[in-house]
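Justification of resources, computational component.

The compute hours requested in this renewal are based largely on the per-chain cost of generating structure records like the one below. Each record pairs the submitted sequence with a full structure-token output. That output is archived, and it is also reused by downstream analysis tasks.
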Amino acid sequence: MSIKIIPLSEGVFTIGHDKIFVPFNPSTDVLTERPTGSLLVEIQPFLIQTKGKNILFDTGLGYSLPNGELQIHANLRQHRLEPADIHMVILSHLHKDHAGGISYTNSLGIKELSFPNATYYISKKEFDFGFENAKLSYVTEDFDILKNSQQVEWLEPNGNIQNFIHFETDGGHCPYHMSFLVNSDSEHVFFGGDVAPQLKQLKTKYIAKYDFDGRKSMELRQDYVSRGKLGHWTFLFYHDVKIPYSRV
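The structure output for this chain reads:
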């Protein structure tokens, strides 16, 4: 394969109307014992290796292990990679379960970027929207470090990154949500963030109440499935508790 996909799962969680992510053990916990309306989700950033680049798609919750190590750093080290080995961090949007690992506080109490040598790619409109709407879903402390960073590349609504990653502002989940298609030789890997977070949502017409525009998200998924079948895309699923990636 010219594209290697490495899921970096942070585990399974439930999330309710309070937007708090509570760890869930599928072997011992019971979903119906959680508050009514709780969703069961995986939190799963992805490492993509292609064209000599280590590319991270979204950054997880930003939680630390009991020893103080950032979980996404520990996950990378399981694959013999250090945080400094990441070349690109590409962000679909800045909700806290996707942007929590952008930065962290080091042992000296200083906030720094979690991936010191990476270029961070994010929509400037999404960044500004996150600050203007700081509440349960947006935690500005996670991403305010990007504001004046020399390591940020602000993305236009649509375009290409380094001529092999196509991106589109599709909205749906939040007004400036972005989706990405990685192209390498004859392989194509699609990351739809929270517009296409689970395989089952691609197989059924599903309007999610948690989306900014649920109907638009549903229509986008149908469009992506049609394009993906024709183009033989592999879809990455950030919130699927069983299937991290698949063709449809």
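The chain has six helices and 17 strands. The CA atoms of residues 129 and 183 lie 29 Å apart.
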